[in-house]
From TrEMBL, chain A:
<dbReference type="InterPro" id="IPR005574">
    <property type="entry name" value="Rpb4/RPC9"/>
</dbReference>
<feature type="domain" description="RNA polymerase Rpb4/RPC9 core">
    <location>
        <begin position="16"/>
        <end position="137"/>
    </location>
</feature>
<keyword id="KW-0539">Nucleus</keyword>
<dbReference type="GO" id="GO:0005634">
    <property type="term" value="C:nucleus"/>
</dbReference>
<dbReference type="GO" id="GO:0006352">
    <property type="term" value="P:DNA-templated transcription initiation"/>
</dbReference>
<dbReference type="InterPro" id="IPR006590">
    <property type="entry name" value="RNA_pol_Rpb4/RPC9_core"/>
</dbReference>
<protein>
    <recommendedName>
        <fullName>RNA polymerase Rpb4/RPC9 core domain-containing protein</fullName>
    </recommendedName>
</protein>
<dbReference type="InterPro" id="IPR010997">
    <property type="entry name" value="HRDC-like_sf"/>
</dbReference>
<dbReference type="InterPro" id="IPR038324">
    <property type="entry name" value="Rpb4/RPC9_sf"/>
</dbReference>
Automatic annotation (TrEMBL), chain B:
<dbReference type="InterPro" id="IPR003029">
    <property type="entry name" value="S1_domain"/>
</dbReference>
<dbReference type="InterPro" id="IPR012340">
    <property type="entry name" value="NA-bd_OB-fold"/>
</dbReference>
<dbReference type="GO" id="GO:0003697">
    <property type="term" value="F:single-stranded DNA binding"/>
</dbReference>
<feature type="domain" description="RNA polymerase Rpb7-like N-terminal">
    <location>
        <begin position="1"/>
        <end position="43"/>
    </location>
</feature>
<dbReference type="GO" id="GO:0005665">
    <property type="term" value="C:RNA polymerase II, core complex"/>
</dbReference>
<dbReference type="GO" id="GO:0045948">
    <property type="term" value="P:positive regulation of translational initiation"/>
</dbReference>
<dbReference type="InterPro" id="IPR045113">
    <property type="entry name" value="Rpb7-like"/>
</dbReference>
<dbReference type="GO" id="GO:0000932">
    <property type="term" value="C:P-body"/>
</dbReference>
<keyword id="KW-0804">Transcription</keyword>
Amino acid sequence: MASGEGSSAAMRAFGADFAEADCLMLAEVATVLKQQADAHEEALRAGTTSEGLKDTFLKTLEYAQRFNHITEMQSIMDTRTMLEQAGLEPVQLAAMANLMPRSVAEARSLIPSLTERACSDDVLEGLINRLQELQRM
Amino acid sequence: YFGPKLQERLKEALHAKVEGTCTGRFGYVITVTEIVSMGKGRIEENIGDVVFDVRYKAIVFKPFTGEVLDAEVVSVSEIGFSCTVGPLNVFVPHQRLGDFSFDADAAPQCWTSPDSRHVIKVDSEVRIKIQAVNEHANDIFCIGTISEDFLGVI
């Protein structure tokens, strides 16, 4: 999922419109959508709206909650910080957090742009281990 | 409409207009997250409507070829299975199911691996790779595969 700011060569593959966009992890999407769903619930109760939530929104919220691996807010923030500091591109960052590969071979197979040049075996292994820990918290 | 609640009305109108839409350019617009600016509004001659240029940020979902995604199976048949990634529909044809075979007699019908350890049926979770993205007017439809390393039943 892409939104907001940031820039990356990988994002240009999506087209010029996405050159400045960022990639969200499922954990972040779930958080934002849940907040909006709760606010909408409040608005319904207060009578300030009578519109329902769109199908696309509800399907995405359900999907993000079902397939997200990182539930604690602090863990979500730590995950983003860690992956950004490792120099991962937005698309790679989101893919690592969403797919949770369990080995260097799996990570490189699922995310082809994550070459050895982009991220060494040692660093990648460290990220994978730390992601497993963050998932369990 | 043009009194003190103008800003709120504009926000509601924006949400109603763009959320849930899907274009080839941006993919699915899931939700508006921020309104960056609202113009001053100009009156349309002869009609009396007022047009505002609104700049906003949104969460969108645009799949790309080669992307690996987790998906929820929604239907199974002898020609393959359909699954969803949020609002997106992906079809995985039988030619892309590796050595899985269709069990028409099972209830419910499913695809099973040779050693019977893995089963693909409705509500199964599968890891797929997008092989083709077809953009229609209001929708995107994808073809996927599970017949590569690290893909398949989760």
